[in-house]
């Protein structure tokens, strides 16, 4: 079989013939290597081992390295260590429309387990932002392999470095009215059976955590209820905080407002736990339905949120279908389509946007969400934690 007809397989199940494994790649360095890598797969594994303790980073890096390696051997019939600058430009164009889709994209955009024969490296075309992220990660891979003495040069280093543009205004968030529709949908979820009550309670708690805490979906999966703690402020009042391990292994303190703690107690008691967590308690922030206490995966959490958005969108469509005014009906349908396109990260953007709209000091929004900065000048600013807690509690509410 011609090498270009090989089917894409996950990195951990990949076996490459000698002419494609990179041992004789034209970009291999001749000097002494700093890693024990005989071929391209070994080199990628060495690169990934650096981030093995961060699940989210590891999976993101593996995905991009895996996609490029598979494209090189399947589409071009050449090893990764023979790729040229021109090849990488062609790869970036490929990311915008991976073809043939049957070979590269999972059917229906669905995610399949890595050992499932239906697994594919893509779920469809990548957005411009995702393309840029992919190339940034691959540039880091090539640079590291050069530093490790595995490659002679980085084919991406020849790319034109564009000046960074000002970040566009955030548009992927739910305006207040649409956010109210989501909450109304959750409030209306059936609660006749114990399992339905558990699903309702979990949906309500997950949205509360993502919105009031401004957490990323990955942060919900890796942090635990034992990360909540109380301390007294200067006036002697007890305040609760959530110590979040976040992006880039950075920690931040998120104000656990009275409203957030009430929802936590509500969720815990529904699951048969004490109202407040014990220090260092290992219970995941969000639990599976049933008796299991294993943390939910990022994909599972995404699925829950997308299901909530889809249900709320359907309610909007049903209401629009009953609307006598064509303009109002069209508006309801458009809002439903927007909601259906939303993801869990929209709730984080919504939290930040709503806090800013509610006149929460932008320095406090920055600290609550764990952003590096608002702008260059914010590097010189520091917000008082107790005041941040008071202002967040007063101005950022979910109001179930």
Automatic annotation (TrEMBL):
It comes from the Bacteria. It is found in: Cytoplasm. Keywords: Cell cycle, Cell division, Chromosome partition, Cytoplasm, DNA integration, DNA recombination, DNA-binding. Gene3D superfamilies: 1.10.150.130, Intergrase catalytic core. It comes from Paraburkholderia tropica. It holds the Pfam family Phage_integrase. PROSITE patterns: CB, TYR_RECOMBINASE. Residues 169-394 form the Tyr recombinase domain. The keyword Cell division applies. This is Site-specific recombinase XerD. PANTHER family: PHAGE INTEGRASE-RELATED, TYROSINE RECOMBINASE XERC. Residues 38-146 form the Core-binding (CB) domain. InterPro entries: CB, DNA_brk_join_enz, Integrase-like_cat_sf, Integrase_catalytic, Integrase_recombinase_N, Tyrosine_recombinase_XerCD.
